[in-house]
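Workshop exercise sheet. Pairs work together: one partner reads the sequence aloud, the other fills in the structure field after running the prediction. Swap roles for the next sheet.
Pair: D.N. / O.F.
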Amino acid sequence: MLLWLVIAYIGVSIGIGLYAATRVHNARDYIVAGRTLPFVMVLAMVFATWFGAETVLGISATFIDEGARGLISDPLGASICLVLFGLVFARPLYRMNLLTLGDFFRVRYNRQTEMALSLCIVVSYLGWVGAQMAALGLVFNVLSDGAITVNQGVFIGAGVVLVYTLFGGMWSVAMTTFVQMIVIILGLLYVTWLAGDMAGGFNAVMTKASAEGKLDFLPTADATDILAWVAALFTMALGSIPQQDVFQRVNSSRNERVAVWGTTVGGLAYFFFAAVPLFLAYTATIIDPDMVQRFMAEDSQLILPNLIINHMPFTAQVVFFGALISVIMSTASGTLLAPSVTFSENILKGYYQDMSDRQLLLSTRIAVATFTVIVAVYAVSTDATIHHMVESAYRITLAGAFVPLAAGLFWQRANNLGATLAIVLGLGTWLLLELFVPEGDIEPQMFGLAVSALGMLVGGLVGPKSHHRPHAGHHHAAGGGHHVTR
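Structure field:
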């Protein structure tokens, strides 16, 4: 019965997504929803970008295991990323009126920079979208009481998300996410309230967590510990900024003000609401400590779903799994669209300069379908946890793409030589250390970031001065690939 009700809810979500597809008339509608979305929809999408499988299943399991110290990258780093993007990056990027971040790298630097960084961005999504697919597999497995294997669940989930993303693009993401966010918030608050009561109340849960040191999030005075803490924070807070999914949400906004505040408020909402699944998962250590111990040894990501199935009334089960499916699908659809758009607009279109709007739309949809298959295969073949898949997704963009983006926007002297050195040295250093010294005191991506910044500085000072004004406006024609500088 529970499985069928969840399937019915998925059917409703697909229906909303397909209805939204009727608003797609060209590539611009598909990629940035015609830049018409109001504040509440942008806020919902930004919130849902991050409030995915790793928030409910991944970081809640990490919290039981490691306490708040294990959550520096997410939710703390992730929230800082969104607030930083909203307050610092959203305004100048929105004014440039581009379709993708790759377009920025072409306009600000050159075609080679666009290609290199677009590839980095596409690759970085493997872990991120893979985590959502792995979580869908987990949910179908739990709901069917093992009748559907985790791997079968991954492919079923991938098919569901593909259907509405393929046809409606950003319009489907916006409309389904808006409905799903309401389900997520009401559903999780209701279930957490029930669980808190069963565990003896809010104070009892917090007292136990505090006594066990689970609320300590600052590093110890040890230098190695401080470096590891900073690396975890920076990887997510800065490495997630040069990402197409965040940019796409900002860029779909009705105006500049919505772009700035929708992102900033969405980031703050994410930080505070991420505490809800953490509290919910921790009640399990009081309600059913034996079950927690068993799954800590097997797979800690199963603690929360099993707490709900074994201890909650049927209504709460329906509400929780409806909310959980909402969480995963809203994140998966947006993060599936981002690398696909980047591939068609910034890699493919470079080879077919005269690509029409209809051809760009078709190639983006083909890329969405192809990327879904690749990600589903990756999700069933990796043994990484959901939280680890998400954490490792941003190392490549931190080492290679953050410096060219930030310098390109805010440093007048940033030029092609600087961008090339930043990418080659940043990625080269990160890859070498990742391969040969992965367990050093300082994380490889942090060395990559430092060397990337040095490369940009040297290139900017030694190379020819750029004639580009970082905040100049660029209008991307919906049909062609022309950029007109104001």
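Discussion prompt: DSSP finds 22 helices and two strands in the chain. What would you look at next?
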